[in-house]
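FW: tagging you since you asked about this chain on Friday. Here's the raw sequence from the shared folder, copied in full. Didn't touch anything.
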Amino acid sequence: MSYQDQERREHPRKKITTRLLWHVIAVSLILLLIAVLVSFWQTYPRAKQDVLAKLQADVQQKLAFNQEVLSGIEYQGDVLSEAFLKRYEAYVGKPEFAELFDDWFQETSPGVFRLQDEFFEGITTANHVFRHLSSFVGPRDEPLDAELKARIVISLLVLSELAPAWQNKVTNTHFSMPENIISLYSPDSPWGSLADKDLVITDFSTVRSTLQQENPERTPNWTGLYFDISAGFWTITYQQPVDFQGQHLINSSFDVSLQQMITDFGHVDEAGVENYLLNAKGHLVASSTLANGIDGTRNTLTPENYDDPLFRALAARLAAADAPIAQAVWEDVDEDYLILVHHFETPNWWYFSVYPKALITEQALQIPLLMAVMGCFLVVILLLAVAFFVTRDVSRPLRELANTAALVNRKNYHAIEQESVSKVRSYGEVTQVLNAFRVMARRFVKANEELEQRIDERTQDLREANQKLEQLAHLDGLTALRNRRAFQKDLAQALQDHEGSYFFVMADIDDFKPFNDNYGHEAGDQALIAISRLFELVAASKTYRYGGEELAILVDAPDAKQVEQRLQELLQSIEKLAIEHLYSRRNQPFLTVSFGYTRIRPGESVSALIQRADKLLYQAKQQGGNCVVGDS
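HL: got it, structure written out here
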């Protein structure tokens, strides 16, 4: 190798070395500036103030949100109670409610009645759609009378109307009654079907606290955390007694599961921090520590039966307070913890944020430790910076050139063209070679794109052809009317449409068989085609070939009068065709059509609708044909 060649090879290396040197110097200056700034960070007292301020803000935000949620649940209780009373005052005493109870409930054991399973799975009856409902009528001293049956039926109607709107805010919505009866809306579990036949709900503190002798002030209340034996989960309940003329009718109530309470109140944003929520009696409502799991052997969690030292200490301190605590910071309950106390006005709970003091110390020492660590790793960082720039300015361009050569060998020109927007830094001959590869690749890619465009055009043509085939699949081959498949689809949609007003029409060409027998099937087909074209002109309608000479129409009209008018106009248009029929048994010299129409009742079965329209068509035939018979 000549001296000149060696010099040319060394020259780029000297340029890269110079660039790297300046980069290393810049990184060193930046790191030095950061080290100086870090030395001015705060010490332990300031760290403690920062922790308290942040914790206070986080707790206030969480409590404000949950205060709104729980207040919303209490408002829902008012809405539920008012809706029940409104129905009770308007409908109680009417015999149909007792009849509905007898239809809906079944006696599963002596004196015990349960709502039929279809009301949980989904059923439409009494002009209502019921779903996710169950009810348990347990053993009681007094027999079921008409008033109590009405109460139960009204509770189910109200739950069906209102409870679905709250299913994402609460776990369950239910009405409980002092006569050992409960009606419940739950998307997850048919509680009324699962409850033990001997269960007496008033034996437990939840419902018992609403009875007049236990709650003479008739105030709503939130329970502590308790285990629902039938549902199999821990929950709290909000319940509102509802009285009428001195009689305790019912309790509007909602369940909020432990899982939901942990999500709302027990969630912690920092490892080591724990939360507790206690009610006015010192019972546990929720806690982040409950996520470890608890069994269902205890009905409620109190300091006497739940072994959590910190919970017991908090309950004891709360009970020993001389005056109500609105907000406080406790440092003497446990030497290892800083405890923030906040009073939760609705529903008179206390929220405790337990923050380990070790975390405050750790936070205060973070910056000094960071400075020490940064000093130790400064050399490593500088070496990494040099490695980064060498990789970027030398290794990556060379790898890029090798990759491009490999792509050329594999004829992957599209990938080469895409690399033209790459931000890889390269110099000299490497850049020239890469650009040459990319210019070549662009030419191949352009040719490929033109080919793909042609393929897309052919694909679009094929898609349009498939769409036309799909349309033809729903058309009758002779009349070009919609066929039986389209009829079944459109009729099902009309039966499910509770907002529209639709009528169903059955039509039949009078004495069409004698016409076919005497004039021939070709003439019969032509007559059917001509009449079908007139059916297509009926306003706001869809016409289907139901079978043979039978046609069906779906008409969108506000009332029967409009339908009658449109069909009469159609009848006159058919008469004007004057298709000769000298063999009619009805002494008519031309082809005529008979019609039977009826209003579509949303939710009814297809067979019932067709049978009703067919009977009306039969009446039209009995009246001599060439007429319209319908109902509203």
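FW: The chain has a mean pLDDT of 80.
HL: agreed, and Residues 75 and 282 are 25 Å apart (CA to CA).
FW: great, closing this out.
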